[in-house]
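Title: Comparing notes on inverse folding

I've been comparing how different people in this forum approach sequence design from structure. To keep things fair, I'm posting one structure and asking everyone to reply with a full sequence. Here's the target:
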């Protein structure tokens, strides 16, 4: 989706907009720019008005909804000054419960120019010149911008490295040195950058400087970051010392085999095989986390669409169902994309004959997985049917995939940690008997969460140890994110270290608002003052009544009464307990307040034997039983 050619938007630096002549448009004050930035971060998706309110204010003031509409009106006038009165907007449009921005951005143009297979030196130089500073500079401290800023920062770093590679490969190594030298200063953890700089120096007849760079890389990686240099960097240093003519180009037998195999594959296979193989590559890429996970997610819908154009429903079913990446988090990183996958799976399911049970089971499991965070009966029905078919077929990998779908559909009410623990135990057993490492990782993650939720931290510790071992053996970097957060929950590590692990994780559905939520939970457990609630993101609405209660109990009570049920997921017990604390703080001022307390108590009662939030393996607010007891006192 793009805007009319007359208006373009810039996010590669401060957020701005330009008219057809290139002149900057007047975007008014900081709140107006924040609204614009929030809509640009969504990349064309609808942002509900309530989300805009939660993201603009820690504690929304009276009239916040009206203020947002005022900001939007002013932005519309600034972006389309020549639009006739009362004619519909074409850029910042109203769509259902919120707004969407049909925007042509410098970020989209940058991504298109730098990620294609044939990007040339002039293209890369021009595209890198579009950057006016760090992406979304104006809103750098906002949690809702973190994932998109991280994605664009990674794209920028990769483009700098691609430009360096292209210059070295084309015999212009000396030109590559200044940019690469600056790049390693700002990205010292990227071994590839150090290696490119060393190769560029070596090709410029500066062997001593190349060796000095590699030794500096070793010192930075080991002494400052605690990371041992990888074998490729060590091999490059040895090549330069041995005066190999083109060091680091041929990095070993693994790369030679990959190059030969992919070259032969490109020549020898047709469209259907390419599509199915692409899904396999995306599945592997997704388990690397960070930019790999984001890239896999971006490409997935395109691959499904390409399969559908071939008119073969069984091929489409294989393409959809082959993406059996283990899923542990219960809110989608990209709800719009997830909905598109579910729609494609449902369409394909109507065309796959009933005797193709395995294909149907994979489609049904996909529907259950991608419908995470939903209470719709269809999602649970799909999970049950997928598991039934998989058990009848007897395929262990298919059953593991179906069990993952069943896991995602155990959040329709509170207090189901024991059910998830049984699923996790079956996954671990199934995986160890059939050599399914991805399923084994998933099973231990599910059990770590479930045992934490049940208060069995000794059992959860065992699963954390097993996960660290599996992550090391099978190169699963995302696993360390979950175990670092679990250890922060346990108090054996700090949340500061866990928060650092979020950078570059490529999981915005998990990370948005999580650091602030962790700090809030620690303060509430310790009875410390809650000094700063900035950055709670989607968790803000569940905390708002509690945070407001000391200063404005009447308004806090109104907010509590209006809150819908928290979304299904690993943090729903925690969200309900935040509401419970608000009800306790308000202390039954009116009959309506008592009714709100009754509602919270009824929702939490099935989880009376669990820990509040610990089923996430990330944070905890104490036991649910303590909250229920305090609610009983308030209710009399």
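Reply #1:
Here's my take.
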């Amino acid at each position: 989706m793009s805007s009319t050619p007359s208006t373009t938007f810039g996010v590669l630096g401060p957020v701005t907009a330009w008219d057809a002549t290139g002149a900057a448009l007047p975007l008014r004050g900081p709140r107006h720019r924040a609204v614009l930035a929030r809509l640009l971060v969504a990349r064309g998706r609808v942002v509900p008005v309530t989300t805009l309110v939660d993201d603009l204010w820690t504690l929304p003031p009276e009239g916040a909804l009206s203020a947002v509409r005022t900001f939007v009106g002013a932005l519309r006038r600034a972006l389309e000054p020549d639009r006739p009165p009362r004619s519909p907007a074409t850029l910042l449009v109203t769509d259902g419960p919120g707004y969407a921005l049909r925007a042509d951005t410098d970020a989209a143009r940058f991504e298109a120019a730098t990620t294609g297979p044939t990007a040339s030196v002039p293209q890369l130089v021009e595209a890198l010149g579009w950057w006016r500073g760090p992406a979304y500079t104006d809103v750098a401290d906002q949690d809702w911008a973190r994932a998109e800023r991280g994605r664009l920062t990674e794209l920028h770093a990769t483009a700098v490295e691609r430009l360096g590679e292209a210059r070295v490969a084309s015999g212009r190594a000396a030109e590559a040195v200044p940019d690469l030298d600056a790049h390693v200063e700002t990205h010292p953890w990227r071994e590839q950058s150090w290696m490119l700089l060393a190769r560029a120096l070596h090709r410029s007849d500066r062997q001593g400087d190349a060796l000095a760079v590699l030794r500096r890389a070793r010192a930075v990686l080991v002494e400052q970051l605690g990371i041992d240099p990888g074998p490729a960097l060590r091999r490059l240093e040895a090549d330069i010392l041995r005066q190999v003519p083109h060091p680091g180009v041929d990095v070993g037998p693994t790369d030679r085999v990959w190059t030969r195999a992919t070259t032969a594959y490109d020549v020898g296979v047709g469209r259907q095989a390419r599509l199915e193989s692409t899904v396999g590559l995306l599945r592997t890429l997704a388990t690397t986390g960070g930019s790999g996970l984001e890239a896999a997610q971006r490409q997935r819908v395109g691959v499904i669409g390409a399969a559908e154009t071939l008119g073969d429903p069984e091929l489409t079913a294989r393409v959809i169902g082959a993406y059996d990446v283990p899923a542990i988090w219960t809110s989608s990183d990209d709800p719009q994309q997830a909905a598109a996958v579910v729609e494609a799976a449902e369409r394909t399911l109507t065309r796959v004959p009933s005797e193709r049970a395995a294909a149907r089971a994979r489609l049904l499991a996909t529907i259950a997985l991608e419908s995470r965070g939903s209470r719709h009966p269809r999602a649970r029905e799909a999970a049950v049917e997928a598991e039934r078919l998989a058990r009848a077929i007897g395929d262990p990998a298919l059953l593991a995939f179906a069990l993952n779908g069943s896991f995602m559909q155990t959040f329709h009410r509170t207090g189901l940690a024991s059910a998830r623990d049984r699923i996790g135990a079956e996954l671990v057993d199934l995986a160890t008997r059939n050599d399914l490492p991805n399923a084994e990782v998933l099973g231990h993650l599910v059990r770590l969460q479930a045992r934490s939720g049940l208060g069995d931290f000794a059992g959860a510790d065992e699963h954390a140890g097993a996960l660290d071992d599996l992550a090391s053996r099978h190169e699963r970097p995302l696993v360390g994110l979950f175990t670092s957060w679990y250890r922060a929950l346990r108090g054996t590590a700090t949340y500061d270290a866990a928060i650092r692990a979020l950078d570059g994780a490529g999981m915005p559905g998990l990370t948005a608002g999580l650091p602030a939520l962790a700090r809030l939970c620690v303060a509430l457990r310790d009875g410390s003052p809650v000094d700063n609630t900035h950055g709670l993101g989607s968790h803000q609405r569940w905390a708002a009544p509690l945070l407001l209660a000391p200063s404005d109990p009447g308004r806090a009570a109104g907010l509590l009464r209006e809150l819908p049920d928290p979304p299904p997921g690993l943090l729903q017990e925690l969200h309900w307990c935040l509401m419970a604390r608000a009800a306790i703080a308000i202390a039954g001022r009116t009959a309506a307040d008592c009714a709100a307390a009754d509602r919270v108590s009824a929702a939490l009662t099935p989880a009376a034997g669990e820990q509040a939030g610990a089923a996430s393996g990330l944070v905890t607010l104490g036991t649910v039983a303590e909250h229920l007891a305090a609610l009983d006192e308030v209710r009399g």
